[in-house]
């Protein structure tokens, strides 16, 4: 098993970068659905895989999720996940339909979540690209409809094989004047993270 070995300084830099990324992503998210996406939580920490899996397994709601990868100087993968009833509200907002129009899961619901996942990933990619001075490209999103625990297990499958711990960024968005909460998880690629942060540190020092 790999041992998670990240210096405190690198964790501090990562934390700052992520907060800026999420801040920009929430603004883009808000513009897309014309409704304030309020950031309730941004947490960057090393977690025990079994504990975080248990936590998501305890959420018994059915979810619609978009999962994709970030390629470029900062590599990683991203999961945007929203409960099914929340996805209906998102679809109505996104398609500017009257509230309560969408009542069942359809291709438009999946398309909406896919598009929002893509927009958020692109926003994070753009923020990272300006930090790292290189292009960041998200892969096309894969949409999954399942229970929260199953989706999350699919998301962390590769990491769970290789390590006990996970460097996980967890974000929770609340939509203004709705009961929707949606989640965004980001896992930086641990094999390239140290190099990426080293480069960034050097660039900061040269400024």
Question: Any overview of this molecule?
Answer:
With 207 residues, the protein is of the alpha+beta class. It has helices spanning 8-33, 49-57, 84-94, 107-132, 148-155, 157-162, 190-206, and strands at residues 37-48, 62-72, 76-83, 136-138, 142-147, 165-175, 181-188. Strands 1, 2, 3, 4, 5, 6 and 7 form a seven-stranded antiparallel sheet that branches. Helix 1 crosses helix 4 (107-132) and helix 3 packs across helix 4. The protein is globular and about 55 Å long.
Distinctive features:
single chain; 207 residues; alpha+beta; 7 strands; globular
Short structural summary:
The chain has helices spanning 8-33, 49-57, 84-94, 107-132, 148-155, 157-162, 190-206, and strands spanning 37-48, 62-72, 76-83, 136-138, 142-147, 165-175, 181-188.
Query: How does the overall form come out from the CA principal axes?
Result: globular
- Strand segment tally: 7
**Helices and strands, in N-to-C order?**
HEHEEHHEEHHEEH
Distance between the termini: 38 Å
Radius of gyration: 17 Å
Secondary structure layout:
Layout: H1 8-33, E1 37-48, H2 49-57, E2 62-72, E3 76-83, H3 84-94, H4 107-132, E4 136-138, E5 142-147, H5 148-155, H6 157-162, E6 165-175, E7 181-188, H7 190-206
Antiparallel strand pairs: 1-6, 2-3, 2-4, 2-5, 3-7, 6-7
Helix pairs in contact: 1-4, 2-5, 3-4
